[in-house]
Structures are given as structure tokens and as C-alpha cells.
Amino acid sequence: MAHHAHEPQVTVLPPDKAKIKKLWTVALYLLLITIVEFIIAFSVPHEYKQLRVWVFVALTIVKAGYIVGEFMHLRYEVKVLFWSILIPIIFIVWMLVAFVYEGIKMPVFQ
Amino acid sequence: MAHSTATTVTGKSVWDGGTSPMGASYGKLMMWFFLLSDAFTFSGLLITYGLVRSSHQAYEGLVSTFTFSTEYWPVPEKVFEAVPFLHGYELPLVFVGIMTFILIMSSVTMVLAVEAGHRMDRKAVEKWMLWTIIGGVTFLSCQAWEWTHFIVGTGVPTMKDVFNTETGLWEQIPILGANLHVNQYGPQPFADFFFFITGFHGFHVFSGVMLNFLIYYNTVTGVYERRGHYEMVEKVGLYWHFVDLVWVFVFTFFYLV
Fold this sequence. Notes:
The structure holds two protein chains of two kinds. Chain A is built from four helices and no strands. By secondary structure, chain A is mainly α. Chain A folds into two domains: 16-72; 78-103. Chain B is mostly helical. Chain B is built from seven helices and two strands; from the N terminus they run H-H-H-H-E-E-H-H-H. Chain B has helices at residues 26-54, 76-79, 94-118, 122-152, 188-220, 223-227, 231-256, and strands spanning 158-164, 169-175. Chain B has a two-stranded antiparallel sheet with strand order 1-2. In chain B, strand 1 (158-164) and strand 2 form a beta hairpin. In chain B, helix 1 (26-54) packs parallel to helix 7 (231-256). The longest helix of chain B has 33 residues, at 188-220. Chain B is elongated. The two termini of chain B are 41 Å apart.
């Protein structure tokens, strides 16, 4: 094969086995949590609505933590960047609380 | 390649210039802040869903005897229970589960592409980018099927009161399927939110597939190899993971709760 002079010399490093294994482990956790959500959805009766909702929300936050922390690598970023992304999320939490409260107080639509 | 730690010069603050205090390149940083703003947009949609849902009548009876009515908010698992090629079987949330699996897997292949990029392994980046694109296209295809099924409707039609302007009387008309005017599954906003939330997410996935393809193309043509780093894979990877992240929330708040 003809080798062009302008082609850069690239050193390919071997795969980081430990890192790749960790990524697959995180994926496994995400799938396991989803399976647990399915089990709860079909085994805990709908009468326990509050319990179901809170468990689902908690599991979703755990999943979100794995995606943002590991896949998006935020856990390993500099602290300033980490908090610059996390602190504004407070406003979303406030928006959630305020709007659902409004929703409960609102007259029921027909 | 982005540094994972900020470099500190002795006796000098990282904010005094000459270094990246956040330990990330401009592009990567801006991607993070864009995603933060996008998170607000999606939160707006999902929280409005919560507001409207909690202001509607909830279904009080047993889930096993649930029927569609415009009087109360539907139980989501009773709406989304169809799977392609298995017509007539009640398989609640199975298809959504498959879609979740596809998106999580494509997130894994994306992060493997990023890892390969750090090692300057062009062949591996190509391989994993291609898998990510396939995952994205598969997800979009699933969504197309789900939308079609939702729009066309199936089973017993729901009766809706409609005012007939010709006769001046209220009439009951059968409704099958849903769109922005009628809804077989429950109150009108339920269908509207379905189209807006999953549609907005689906459009993000579509954009992501386009960006992924661009990255794949540039990798194949050796653009990043000549540039000396694969940081673009990392930036688009952030976007792709975000799309997966949003789906995790849509899955919980639209389909599970």
C-alpha cells in the first residue's frame, strides 16, 4: 500500500481493559435497575400509588446518576465544572414542586 | 484531547489565566451548558405533563377492569401494551422496555467509541460509531411504529360527546386512535403530551443520529487522525448520552408512573 508523506504517524494504544469492563458494568446496572422497575410496575398493586411513584423516581435518579457520572464522565471532571452543571438543577426541582402543587390546587378539568 | 484535571501553577490561582480552570476545552464546556439548557426545556415539558395530569380526574377503579374514557386520565400501561408482530396480545410496556434497552446499548457503544478515540484507534472508533448509528436508527424505527399504532388505534372505540352545529344537538361519536383533535385513550391533553414529549425527544434522537453520522464520516476520512485528537467524538458523545438520559426520565414519568 502506498504510504503518503503527509499522513501522520499515529500510535494506537492498546484497549484499556479495566475501563471497558467498568463501562459494561455500568450498562449492566442500568439494565438491572430497569428490570427492577418493571418488576415493581407489575407486582406492587396500583393502590400503593405514592410508594410506587417515589420508588420509580428514586430509581430514575440512580440511573441518571450513572449516565451523567460515568458515561458523560462528569464524576471525574474538575469540581468547578461538576458543580456548575449540578447546582442549576435546583431550579428544576423547584419548578417541579411549584407546578405539581399548582396542579393539585387547580380545579379538575372535565 | 481534554485534560481531566486542571493544572495549577504554584502560588497562582487557576483563574489568573493561561490555563483552563474547568479542565475542559471551550467546545466541550459549551456542550455541557447547552445540555443544561436542554435539560430545562425537557423538564418544562415533563413538569407541565405532571401539572396537567394531577389536575385531571385519576382512574379510581381496578386496573384489571380499566377501560378507556375521556372522563379520567388513562393508566399508561393499558395504553402502551402492543408489540409489533404480536397483534392481539396484551404485553404492557414490553415494547417500551425494548426501546429503553436499545438506547442504553447505543449509549454504551458511544462511550466505547470515545474510549477508542482516546487511544487514537481509528478502526475501533469506526466500529463503535457504526453500532451507535444502528442503535439510533433502530430506536427511531421503533418510535415510528409506536406512533403509527397510537395514531391508528385499536380495540373498542371510545365514545365522545360532540356538538352537531347542523342539528343543534349533542351527539356521541366513536373515536379510534388519537391525534391533536381527538383521543381514544383519555382526555385530549394525554395525546397532545404524548406527541409533544416523545416527538421532541425523537427529534433529538434524529439530530443525534445525524451528528453521529457526521462524526463517523470524519473518522473514516481521517479528519480526526490528521487533527491529532478525537475530541469531537467526545462532544457528540455527551449529546448522545443526554438523549439517553432524557429517555430514562420520559420512560419513568410518561410510561411507568
